[in-house]
Amino acid sequence: xxxxxxxxxxxxxxxxxxxxxxxxxxxxxxxxxxxxxxxxxxxxxxxxxxxxxxxxxxxxxxxxxxxxxxxxxxxxxxxxxxxxxxxxxxxxxxxxxxxxxxxxxxxxxxxxxxxxxxxxxxxxxxxxxxxxxxxxxxxxxxxxxxxxxxxxxxxxxxxxxxxxxxxxxxxxxxxxxxxxxxxxxxxxxxxxxxxxxxxxxxxxxxxxxxxxxxxxxxxxxxxxxxxxxxxxxxxxxxxxxxxxxxxxxxxxxxxxxxxxxxxxxxxxxxxxxxxxxxxxxxxxxxxxxxxxxxxxxxxxxxxxxxxxxxxxxxxxxxxxxxxxxxxxxxxxxxxxxxxxxxxxxxxxxxxxxxxxxxxxxxxxxxxxxxxxxxxxxxxxxxxxxxxxxxxxxxxxxx
Length: 398
Known about the structure:
Order of helices and strands: HHEEEEEEEHEHEHHHEEHHHHEEEEEE
Shape: globular
Strand order of the largest sheet: 6-10-11-12-14-13
Strand content: 15-25%
Number of helices: 11
């Protein structure tokens, strides 16, 4: 199977607790402004976890071996199951222990097109954080998918601004679901745009402090650090690496955290931002440490961490590292990137809300808490919120 690797010290600390059978929300950590704040909060939190044994069902984790075969691994009631498949055609479905996945290719091609325009409906939301069941309910009731979990949004474009990973216990299910749904959308003439969030980048870099203990157990059973389950030769790891950190759809610019005003004053282009960020994505895969602007893009004021549009909405206990963008700076960003709206996740709200008289739209509606969520819809110049039950709600400007 896998050669043995050591899990990080923090992972081992979590693993010794085994696995919590309660929901992920019971021990989700508050998301702070920067990495040092998050580390302190995580350290303070660890001793409070209560050990409860539960068998793990997880997978599949699918890798492409040197013979171009699919090597798949599952945990079924805590036991490792393996399968080697020679894919004759695609999609190829692999399945074990009632956990299946459709593999569409041995690798994902990075689409470097960042700007899309057309006369089609657009839907957007953010921050699933492992809440698969709530995500399915929200997408079904708002007709993004049908009752069979298949694409139902026609030629529409569906934007997800990151944070699939961490906190919840059904991350694997979400990843495979979106991987397949993206193919369905494109065949129907629509598209899914998944941009990387801070938690995708954290996981790919081995920062596991928000990881549900279920996945620490999975990594232990498979004798591999969790981040290596998403290595470049894994189907999902390769797919994640193909994703951008921003996307522009019609007159809207999307990213997980936000665009610092300096990006406009320094006249940075969308291609430049995405390229530099992606070229420095994973520390362990770099020839030398991040430096200069690449380092800036991965720090507090970078595109996956920035909270400057919500200076009064920082998570409780976190430090404000930015006084917030001014109205003039928002106008400068909109003019520079030639858009009318900046649409971001990362900073949780009770519902989808706007700032700066509607020029900024916050689409993290706290799905991570497992109780509620909303989708932003834009069509024919109109914007509205889709509730968890599918009710059409107005989008108020603040």
